[in-house]
Amino acid sequence: MTGVFISFFALLAVAFAAMVxxxxxxxxxxxxxxxxxxxxxxxxxxxxxxxxxVFQVLIYVGAVMVFMVYTIMLLDDRDASCxxxxxxxxxxxxxxxxxxAAALWMLVGKQPAAAxxxxxVAGDIYTFSAFSLAFxxxxxxxxxxxxxxxxxxxxxxxxxxxxxxxx
Amino acid sequence: MIQDLVVYLAYMGYAIGFMLGIATLxxxxxxxxxxxxxxxxxxNRCYIRIPFTNVKLVAWGLxxxxxxxxKMLLKxxxxxxxxxxFCFNLAPFLAAAPVLLVFSVIPFGGTLTPGQLxxxxxxxxxxxSYAMQVASLDAGILVVLSFSGIGILGTMLAxxxxxxxxxxxxxxxxxxxxxxxxxxxxLALISLVVTYGTLDLNTMVQWQxxxxxxxxxxxxxxxxxxxxxxxxxxxIAENKRVPFxxxxxxxxxxxxxxxxxxxxxxGLFMLSEFIEIVVVxxxxxxMFLGGYNLPYLTxxxxxxxxxxxxxxxHLAVVLLQVGTFLVKVVLAGCFQILIRWSLPRFRYDQLMNxxxxxxxxxxxxxxxxxxxVRWWTI
Lengths: 167, 378
Fold this sequence. Notes:
The complex is a heterodimer of chains A (167) and B (378).
Chain A: H1 2-22, H2 26-46, H3 50-74, H4 90-110, H5 114-122, H6 128-138, H7 140-166
Chain B: H1 2-37, E1 48-49, E2 56-57, H2 64-74, H3 85-102, E3 111-112, H4 114-117, H5 119-125, E4 130-131, H6 140-161, H7 165-196, H8 201-207, E5 211-212, E6 216-217, H9 220-223, H10 225-238, H11 250-253, H12 263-288, E7 297-298, E8 301-303, E9 309-311, H13 314-340, H14 348-377
Antiparallel strand pairs in B: 1-2, 3-4, 5-6, 7-8, 8-9
């Protein structure tokens, strides 16, 4: 039963990802991305990784996508560039899609696809206390490093705004 | 397996009925309570005439809810000239659905053993027992925050796709306000998590079933009084109600982000606001007011501090717990409506200053003090 749900949400995630690429209207592309994130969260929840599922929705949908939609809302979406059926970015996109497909094809040959999914389904639910212990014992330094990167991002954004105002 | 399905389907039915029923009740309370506060009679025009008689059943204006629903369903569903009809139609659902989902992690009773309720049920259910909660997740509080974050998308989408400057301004205000107050709300909740040592709402309620100083119930409002005030303030701001109703204030923006909506789509926005009152009340009750706990009531009956006991059958305990939760939620909702009719509206700069320069530092301070106290008492 869990396998059926995982397959369903995986198909949904791929469909939404394709829509993100295909749709020309920025707001609709952003909504498709929201759908994609929620589908991914559903897959994680089916696999018993509730921690990852909750953070997927909380951070990516509740924070990142909300800001993205906010920005799109304030843009003039009747800009002519949205009306063009294709942009030159389609060429690298197709190239990367082919490369990803090729990489997946090579992986399928080496490893039976069913094994990791079945193992994960049979596993226990990864609880928040287990996550917190692992996080504070092993990954605290990586997390702090990421906050430094975020700080650099904030300073860069602030500088860009100041430059824009002065200019 | 089939027994689990029956129980969880019943829970889902109860949760949806609970939210829609009490939300409808609150539309009436809002009218009647404001009338009492302003020394008016209030809603009294709707009645049902008993057939073949001249007897009009007014029932204190309770039928106004039915009249409202019928009006919204029967009105013309007018769609303005918008450049994205799909987003315009999607927005009300995106605003209302996440609010309904939040209730899934809130426990509305203790442990249910259906086999002990009635002798006839024992053959079917055996000795199985279930926590009275639709989804028992250990990430309870984070699920609440995740789903309430999705609701912002619906509000923004409604304002953006309406092709109306009032709607657009309302949406920009709503999004800024909701994002700003979510920070204070999150910090207030983290203080609570530090106190209880869990994210699971059911464990939080069980934690509150104890006693402080031998007699006072160990409710969150007594252990974290500042977090209670911070959470209540931030929750009213998240719900965009007076004194934080800048996104939809009628004197400036007609109706804000849902100006262009009519019929049931407008009804969905209104209903989601009232369902949000129910959800906020349920969260307040669960995290600060002891949830379904009645002082001295345990799963076997009453145990008083002096040592006296009063054993009760399982059915009575379940009914008492569910009833206690229901009454507490209604009272907490009435208190929110009391605030709504007591305070004047903020100016927008005051609202932002209040959120960022007053509430957030206070919430951060509360968290630091809580963490220090927890560190010393562990």
